[in-house]
């Protein structure tokens, strides 16, 4: 089975901190995605990557950056966390087949 | 990019068919329709996808209208475990030949005992 894992299920950070969210997939997928999910807004795409060191902005990239140094790992970085970045963050991957495989999510709270 | 519109919520009696509609009136000819669902506290799970023809798998059926402007996901015999948020998505092209998924807000399906 494809497995997408995320470094933490729950995370609490302070305003202004630099935050790293890690995502690892074990199926050699080329494409990886970061979404955030907020009540009433559904899933919104932050960034995606179609190859190592390649990245593309999604719909809401402001305040975020990403890193993909290895094919299996895709990191989301909040350079200076703010309270409006409190959210559920979901990572997904796909190898060009039809389905995206999602991780369990990281619930981030910024205080 | 094509966007989708779904009802906010629906109820369905256990054992009956659940029919979840989706409008995607701006879909392009080469964009696929996907359905995912998200059970509370889990990541979304793939259900089915299609381009033009109706599709069926062990989980559900997907009916796409001839003009491709709308589709319906059918769960033939809904169970309590089908209670979830269902997302209808079109796969849009990103840059450099890649693609991205555009999720809407989904339909919250509640299956009633």
Question: H/E element string of chain A?
Answer: EEEEEEEEEEE
Please give the number of β-strands of chain B.
10
The structural class of chain A is mainly beta
Overall pLDDT score of chain B = 89
Topology pattern of chain B, helix = H, strand = E: EEEEEEEEEE
Please give the oligomerization state of what you see.
Answer: heterodimer
Describe this structure in words.
The complex is a heterodimer of chains A (111) and B (113). Chain A is mostly beta strands and 111 residues long. Chain A has no helices and eleven strands. Chain A has strands spanning 4-6, 10-13, 19-25, 31-38, 42-51, 54-57, 65-70, 73-78, 87-94, 101-102, 106-110. In chain A, strands 2, 4, 5, 6, 9, 10 and 11 form a seven-stranded mixed beta sheet that branches. Chain A has a four-stranded antiparallel beta sheet with strand order 1-3-8-7, with no helix packed on it. In chain A, β7 (65-70) and β8 (73-78) form a beta hairpin. Chain A is globular. In chain A, 38% of the residues are buried. The model of chain A has no long low-confidence stretch (mean pLDDT 92). Chain B is 0% helix and 50% strand. Chain B contains no helices and ten strands. Chain B has strands at 9-13, 18-23, 33-38, 45-50, 55-56, 61-64, 70-75, 84-93, 99-103, 107-112. In chain B, β6 (61-64) and β7 form a beta hairpin. By secondary structure, chain B is an all-beta fold. In chain B, strands 1, 3, 4, 8, 9 and 10 form a six-stranded mixed beta sheet that branches. A four-stranded antiparallel beta sheet of chain B has the order 2-7-6-5, with no helix packed on it. Chain B starts with 8 loop residues before the first strand and ends with a strand. Chain B is globular and about 40 Å long.
Write the layout of secondary structure elements.
The complex is a heterodimer of chains A (111) and B (113).
Chain A lengths: L3 E3 L3 E4 L5 E7 L5 E8 L3 E10 L2 E4 L7 E6 L2 E6 L8 E8 L6 E2 L3 E5 L1
Parallel strand pairs in A: 2-11
Antiparallel strand pairs in A: 1-3, 3-8, 4-5, 4-9, 5-6, 7-8, 9-10, 9-11
Chain B lengths: L8 E5 L4 E6 L9 E6 L6 E6 L4 E2 L4 E4 L5 E6 L8 E10 L5 E5 L3 E6 L1
Parallel strand pairs in B: 1-10
Antiparallel strand pairs in B: 2-7, 3-4, 3-8, 5-6, 6-7, 8-9, 8-10
